[in-house]
Amino acid sequence: MSRMFLAGAVALGLGAAPALAAEALPISISMAPAAANRASAQMGDRLSFRTVIRNDGTTPVGGVIGWVSLLRTDPGQEQPIDLEDWSAHKAITIPSLAPGESVATDWPFRLIASGTYRAVVSAATRDGAALATSPFADFTVRAKPLVESRRVLPVALGLPLLIGAGMLVTARRR
Amino acid sequence: MTAAGQIARKEAGELLLDLRGQAWLLAMACALSAFSLLLVGSAELSLLDNAQVVYDMAGIATALGALLALVVGVDGIGGERERGSLVPLLLTPASRGAILLGQIGGVAMAWAAMLALAVPFLWAVGSTGQNLWDGMAVLVLLGTPVVLGFGLFGLGLGARLGSTRAALLAGLIGLLVAASPLLIGPSLRQSALGGMFDAVNPFSAAVNGYDLVIIDSQGLLSQWMSLAHTLAWLALMLWFAHAAFRRVRR
């Protein structure tokens, strides 16, 4: 049934998507890791990537919005990442970009979880119908034990015992 | 020593040297222990980022501090009334303002004791990560007005309501509602109603400040809005406690 519907749609010209393809945005985005990035990052480290958003067109572009996305690419774990705790710097707006003008932006990340990731910066404009994207920046985050039980156990067990001992002393004095 | 100082000293002595007060501190320490043991005992929770754990622990310490302050506050007037010691206190030459100030001193001592309990736990879970010291600083900066405000809320309820039980119940319900951001987290801000609640709740102001400083590594000085919010709550509760205590008859 669905095949028949699809065939009918194509016959009616509804499948002529290429004709409706949006005009490419005259914007290019380059992306490079910061020089200070560690070669082998682990959880808790910080990484930063620098993008340069450039107007390659011949007319000014207004209302440019750039935003960063992060994807996890481990086999079986592929998913977009909520940047809530990864970065406080998630987007920029550029009121106007003249022909040939470029804006450099640093996108810092705090590495919250281990895995293999892919960062990408996208840009759209107020009026344009297309999307510009940077090349992918791939990185791997090594796992790290975060809460050390060796430190927690003495405090978690010792402090109540200490207060309990203090109570015993108080009770005996009475 | 002034009358207010003497009352504060008596309240602090009851908390630190009296068996009943020590039992409260033991209960607080056990609660912090249970939380930190949960962190190392659960595979998933133990993978939380240090900053997240310090943030959670700061929120728990604030909630427990507010609970302790509320109980100390209700006991400061309501408890004195039930023990028959409020009228003799009111008959002393000490002014009502001095008595209230002394009771606030007792609440402040309870919060200081709670902070002293929380510091080793914060160190234990957060010393291998980031923003531990900033986390402790923001806990003192934003937690203090919130906790003292709940102590004053308890003092006001104890003075206003005839029964200590009713005052405690009303105070606990208020605290439970206010501390809901600890359970619901940032998702609270995503609805209009949650956003409005967040905007007026001093507890939200404190935990949002903890989030920004401990997790997002923002500076302490940038938290002036949260500080203003919590100070407004403190001023409101000071007015409430003062007005309620003025109405107490000898």
Automatic annotation (TrEMBL), chain B:
Coiled coil: none annotated. The chain crosses the membrane at residues 21-41, 53-77, 98-123, 135-159, 166-184, 227-245. Keywords: Membrane, Transmembrane, Transmembrane helix. It comes from the Bacteria. This is ABC transporter permease subunit. It comes from Paeniroseomonas aquatica.
